[in-house]
Amino acid sequence: MEVQEQQNKSRVVKVDSVESWEFYVNQATNQGFPIVVHFTASWCMPSVAMNPFFEELASAFQDVLFLTVDVDGVKEVATRMEIKAMPTFSLMREGTVVDKLVGANPEEIRKRIDGFVQSIRVYVA
């Protein structure tokens, strides 16, 4: 999937508007890519602490689109996705949330993403 290059060639795409949210979700959906979204806030230290881990996951799972959404910067998306606490990680397929994890728990997040990706590979095969 073609993703605009971020600083330091990050594989995590920063969503900065409702339009960019819709663009990336639609593009991933149309191309059959699963999405993992990190809903974060600059004032939330557990969220900020998860950023390097989220980057690591994005490098490990090349066939998944990783998005990050600052809930204060793109409030409409956070409201639409019913985000109540940070960090929240949403796993999406075909534009729909199929799993959601609240809190900074790297092991559980990795386990859920791994299971999510495996289920999609089986689903597609």
Number of strands: 5
Element order, helices and strands?
EHEHEHEEH
The termini sit apart by 19 Å
> By helix and strand content, what is the structural category?
alpha/beta
The number of helical runs is: 4
Which overall shape is indicated by the principal axes computed on the Cα atoms? globular
Helical percentage: 40-55%
Strand order of the largest sheet: 1-3-2-4-5
Can you walk through the features of this model?
- This protein is of the alpha/beta class and 125 residues long.
- It contains 4 helices and 5 strands, in the order βαβαβαββα.
- It has a 5-stranded mixed beta sheet with strand order 1-3-2-4-5, with helices on both faces.
- A hairpin with a 2-residue loop joins strand 4 (88-93) and strand 5 (96-102).
- Residues 1-7 have low confidence and may be disordered.
Identify the notable features of this structure and list them briefly.
4 helices, globular, disordered N terminus, single chain
Topology overview:
Elements: E1 12-15, H1 18-31, E2 35-40, H2 45-60, E3 65-70, H3 75-80, E4 88-93, E5 96-102, H4 106-124
Parallel strand pairs: 1-3, 2-3
Antiparallel strand pairs: 2-4, 4-5
